[in-house]
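So, can you check this one?
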Amino acid sequence: MDYKVLAQQTAQDILGYSQDTSGWKVVKSSKKITVSSKASKKFHGNLYRVEGIISESTSKLADFLYKPEIRITWDKSLKVYNMIHKIDSDTFICHAITQSFAMGSISPRDFIDIVHFKRYDGNVNVISSKSVDFPGYPPSSHYIRGYNHACGFVCSPLKDNPAHSKLVMFVQTEMRGKLSPSIIEATMPSNLVSLVLNAKDGIKTHKAPPERGCHHSCQSLHKKK
């Protein structure tokens, strides 16, 4: 499998979702965060769109969301987020294990994802992820192996305040197992709001190193979803 080509295509998919304005239905709005959904074209489930404003520059926000050693410090939906293979400075494969949620009615899942950073014109930054198979990490009996169809973050400067960023997140996760779709639909919007709130809180307290432009290195062994 050409992981790099897959990563680049996934980033294009996420950019395309961000430019798609039709068919979205608002399913939750809380604390200045809006969650919308529409039927996914990838599986029998929903594609979710989550929008909020982050009081940080786009480049710092993208770095904060992309680096696995940082994400594990703020994303409370994860108990493990390890980089297991670095492809280049902008692409890696990770193993993620989620916490249980919905008061324990949804047990932890694990995922093997390829994660990629891409900067587009207008300082639009896309951090994309998609599930892949990777040697040495087959599904285990300890966790149900979930599958992320194209997911990701789109960070762009606010037009009226470029020091702050608009964050749009896309999620289309196939939880697998024997879960009722109604349980996922009932719990997912609140969990996505919580994820953005976690990011907002995390970036306030994160002491980032000096910015290094558009290159992002992943040095330590930690990672996502």
Notes: The chain has four helices and twelve strands.
